[in-house]
Amino acid sequence: MPPVKKSKKGKRKSKDGKLKIVRARGAPPALPPELRALDTEWWYAFLNKQVELEHAVPPDEGEAFRHFFRTSRKTFDYICSIVREDLISRPPSGLINIEGRLLSVEKQVAIAMRRLASGDSQVSVGTAFGVGQSTVSQVTWRFIESMEDRARYHLAWPSQERLEQIKAVLEDAYGLPNCCGGVDATHVIMTLPAVESSADWCDHAKNYSMFLQGIVDDQMRFIDIVTGWPGSMTFSRLMKCSGFFKLCEAGERLNGSVKVSAEGAEIREYIAGDSCYPLLPWLMTPFEGKHLPAPLQNFNARQKAARLLGTNALARLKGSWRILHKVMWRPDKNKLPSIILVCCLLHNILIDCHDELLPSVQLPEHHDTGYNRENCEQVDPNGKVMRENITAHLQHCEASKFLCN
């Protein structure tokens, strides 16, 4: 369709073949055959609205799409295919735009993803799409319900074959044998009505918040999450309340092949975490103290590189889906875990679809600024032996490299 008159915007191809936004009237460029059956009218109307509101818009159309929705158009269409049946089978009788037409599946997904990506108010998002605040609320929740039900396969504990791949990559990158990933947690800050405000939800930074703990693999893909717990808990308590902890303690997770070190010691599967977590046979934390011997420093450096996978994944998550980074205005605490889960699913989908984020997306600072972490004093004797075995193994590997050189 021709662009709206106010913006006087059109599209044309540049010399490198990419679509560029230009100051001219005219119809949008021809779409490839696979997209012609899909609704793209909403995109040009939205793009023109951003220019009309004098918002910064990348000059390349593909980058502009990723800027606003975090995904390429191809991945966006894939997400639409996941939820299409639900959004069509339950006709949105009340979901209409200012021209009185029913919203297409593509426009509904765009509204929901823009709300999650920007963290802007429902009023602001509605203005950008020509719909009301209540419509943004309905559309976003319908999208979340459908994704939660239909996209779960994008966040699952890996098969043993996949775990072997993860372990091989991490050992090659950091020298850590049998490491299956990193773990970290973050606070999702919110305001609460006075009737719901309680000490349970008030964390030590004096914010009302909900915890999200994520375990990630070598590609920073979430392979296990736990959320819904108050931010007032400690990291160690959060871990112990998780289903992941119970499965590991019961020997039903991180129970794969055991590696035998050069000294004949057994090293089981484990994940790497900060000192705010307990030292367990399947959870390796760093050595504490100043002026540590070289072997312990070597272990700490390699263990830190692995655990930062979790830290960086959370920074990427909250940078991409800013609704988790901004202060959420009076969310329904029963629905908030679903919002968090769907953001994690979208994070994984981007990785699974090999989508690249714009460099400006990841948070420039830590994902949990304003929070201090307390060291956990719990040390499991078997965990201590495991850490010593790994340290000795790393020392042996360092010595072997020295002799080879």
Automatic annotation (TrEMBL):
Cellular component, GO annotation: nucleus
Named cofactor requirement(s): a divalent metal cation
Keyword entries, A-Z: Hydrolase, Metal-binding, Nuclease, Nucleus
Compartments where found: Nucleus
DDE Tnp4 domain boundaries: 183-348
Major location (coarse): nucleus
GO molecular function, one term: nuclease activity
Superkingdom as given in the UniProt entry: Eukaryota
Pfam families in alphabetical order: DDE_Tnp_4 (PF13359)
PANTHER family hit by this protein: GH03217P-RELATED (PTHR22930:SF85), PTHR22930
Family as reported in the entry's similarity comment: Belongs to the HARBI1 family.
Protein name: PIF/Ping-Pong transposase family protein
Species per Swiss-Prot/TrEMBL record: Zea mays (Maize)
